[in-house]
Amino acid sequence: VVVPGELPNGCVPIILTLYASKSRGDYDARGCLKKQNALARYHNSALFEAVSRLRHRYPWVKIVYADYYKPVIDFIKKPSRFGECVVNLAVRFISAILFGISSFKNY
Fold first, then answer.
1. Mind giving me the DSSP string for 60-105?
2. DSSP line for 14-47
3. For residue 102, is pLDDT > 80?
4. Taking the complete model, does pTM exceed 0.70, yes or no?
């Protein structure tokens, strides 16, 4: 069983739009909303602990926590590390997910 963590929701365009703030202090250096990302980190921490407890309670079951937060933040911080092709594909893929584009090859 794979238990996925939260993405850095404070960096998601729809969240940035819905919770836009005039205060620069509400944003981090990457332009993401601090409070939403703090909530995602808190959720992921609690979820990780719960998964750990389940692993100990049911050692015969393979339960894995999937950290989505850190890889996405790493990508946002330094997209060039992942190569231009990967960046373009990732932007198209994430846009397809966030905006409901049914076929991202037509995007």
1. TS--EEE--HHHHHHHHH-GGGG-HHHHHHHHHHHHHHHHT-S-GG
2. HHHHHT--S-GGGB-TTS-BHHHHHHHHHHHHHH
3. no
4. yes
